[in-house]
Amino acid sequence: MDAGSGFMHFNEKTNPIPQRIVHGTTIEIIWTIFPSIILMFIAIPSFALLYSMDEVVVDPAVTIKAIGHQWYWTYEYSDYNSSDEQSLTFDSYMIPEDDLELGQLRLLEVDNRVVVPAKTHLRMIITSADVLHSWAVPSLGVKCDAVPGRLNQTSILIQREGVYYGQCSEICGTNHAFMPIVVEAVNLPNYAQWVENQLCQQSN
């Protein structure tokens, strides 16, 4: 509104009863309500998508529990724990630089890899035994905090066989940089053979 029209609206001689609303009320109501309605229509499917992203697979084929320690990971394949004597649990430590073999990656190789079947729905349950950690494998699009006293879970579906590297992405102490994660995806027969070998080794 320019100065001239302002003088007209609020001049006692030309406009003895001043108008309470001097702007385009109708258009202002429209351009406030209409975008709000559009946002509501966008939000409804977005909320449904966000909710479904947090939902883990209802019936996963394999469940793996990852426990963060200072400074290594423990993995428990709880599907195969028939008793305390026979359980598939192992620790995964970083291989020191002096012990690396040709072709192995510095600060990323571990002595015990997480072996999983490819093209299979996996559930990861992640927690910590001491301080905050974070189980992160960027190439799988997975990052989940490991919180003491809390079980966080996420789902993974690896499409291709291969080796995927990650690290703890929470600053968890002096050796934070030395607790890598290695996930090896294999075909189903090789995975079954690996599980059988692990159970035989741990039962002996």
How would you describe the overall organization of this protein?
The chain is of the alpha+beta class and 204 residues long. The protein folds into 2 domains: 3-54; 62-203, Sandwich (Immunoglobulin-like). It contains 3 helices and 10 strands; from the N terminus they run H-H-E-E-E-E-E-E-E-E-E-E-H. The chain has helices spanning 3-9, 25-54, 188-203, and strands spanning 62-69, 72-77, 88-92, 114-117, 121-128, 133-137, 142-146, 152-157, 162-168, 180-186. The strands form 2 sheets. A 5-stranded mixed β-sheet has the order 3-2-1-5-8. It has a 5-stranded mixed β-sheet with strand order 4-10-9-6-7. A hairpin with a 2-residue loop joins strand 1 (62-69) and strand 2 (72-77). The longest helix has 30 residues, at 25-54. The chain is elongated and about 105 Å long. The model has no long low-confidence stretch (mean pLDDT 86).
**Helix share of residues?**
25-40%
CATH architecture of the largest domain: Sandwich
The coarse overall form would be elongated
**Helix-strand string:** HHEEEEEEEEEEH
Task: Give me the Rg, rounded.
Answer: 29 Å
| Residue fraction in strands | 25-35%
**Distance between the ends:** 88 Å
Structural class, please?
alpha+beta
Domain Cytochrome oxidase subunit II transmembrane region profile: 1-57
Keywords: Copper, Electron transport, Membrane, Metal-binding, Mitochondrion, Mitochondrion inner membrane, Respiratory chain, Translocase, Transmembrane, Transmembrane helix, Transport
InterPro entries: CcO_II, CcO_II-like_C, CcO_II_C, Copper_CuA, Cupredoxin, Cyt_c_oxidase_su2, Cyt_c_oxidase_su2_TM_dom, Cyt_c_oxidase_su2_TM_sf
Main location: membrane
